[in-house]
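Structure representation.

___
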Amino acid sequence: MTGTLANSSLTHPNAPPKILTQQTQSPSLIRGLGLRAATAVVIGNTIGSGIFLVTSEMARTVGSESLVFVAWILGGVIVLFGAFCYAELGAAFPKAGGPYVYLSEGLGPIWGYLFGWMSSFLDRPVAMAALAAGFLRFLGFLFPAVTAPIYTGHIAKFAFTITLAQPLAALVVLVVTVVNYLSVKSSGNIQMILTTLKMATIVLIVAGGFLFGAKNTIVAAPLTNHLTANPSALATIGAVLSALVPAMWAYNGFNDLGSLGEEILDPRRNIPRAIILGLSTIAGLYLLANIVYFHTLPFSSIAASQHVASDVVQSFAGSRGAAALTIAMAISALGALHVVVLTGARIPFAMARDGLFFKFAGNIHPRLCTPSGALLFLGGVSALLALTGTYEQLYSLFVFAVWIFFALTAIALIRLRFKQPNLTRPYQASAYPFTPVVFFLAATALTINLWMGHPVRSTLGLLVILAGVPFYYFWRKRANSRQ
């Protein structure tokens, strides 16, 4: 996995990239995550609820079992090409903030800042609130009182309902934030445990389906959708592209390990290894899970299901098995929340260290050596969103924005090859330039597809990004005046 070494301004794994011009702070972040913990972060950040739910949506979209697998495999190939890009950049720039640094180095500081702005105010806080809400919803399946309304009111023409789940979701966010505040090494160990439980859940579904699930021999009734009504090659391609959206949602998260660049042991070797090993494991588990789904249930049942994994488990393990799976999915949501906090806090921290964010977000705890200010910022914003109960509407905004920055990251990698040809690259993207070009084209196509399908939400997401531009110039001017 090690590529060709060359002379570079980065002569040491811990040397800062050129974007970081301020003196090294004391105390500093500590390297406490080894290869296993880093791999657990990749797997834990990627496996959430998607694999347990989205196959039914994909089945309804394409109307064919074989095309569902085409979408899963194609999605896996796309994110693998993306993983090559993030592995090269992560090994070359093992710094806190990850994509913030890559885009700043490759395209210019404002592009890195806009990514960090989007991540700090939209992506991570909303994702944290939504994951905490998902955790409470799973608990609500076992304890219905959790989701029971406790107050209903009106503001003008708008009705709102408050349930016990909202303050509990905020509490979950704060508890996970505190865990990350206390120790990065302990956070890595906790993530290894939670990731192991996630993987065990999928393995048990696969093993149980093969051993105890009745083989599906029912001929599925034909589905009526756009594809069956227009069985042309163009319609088939369009349907597969649409099915890619939920598949890519299930794969989302493979790109976040680089944000922990300053806290990973031997990052120039372990970042590429962890990204590619973690993603390969995820792709294998996803394919096995889908084989079991279609092995156990008829296609029409999968297409009609709202909780496909639960329906599969219930078919061979009964209601108790479905309840056990619900607990496992709750743990999966909790594990994903833990990783989002772990990786997300490093982005505002890196921005604050460069003078491009609130100063307190750059604080490091003198004894615990964790980014205490950024963690408190992220946890506080996320807890407030969890209390409002409006995060589901907000969550849809950042999907479009995330794919914009995927495409920009591919461009940054290509530009850095020309801009800094002598940069030390311990890992080089396989089949360059084919892989970053394909990843860029796929990210662009999916971004356009999302905008065409949800123009209002996508436009709002773009406006959130652009809202950061005046703040960038304000903070840059203030930072320059202090020099």
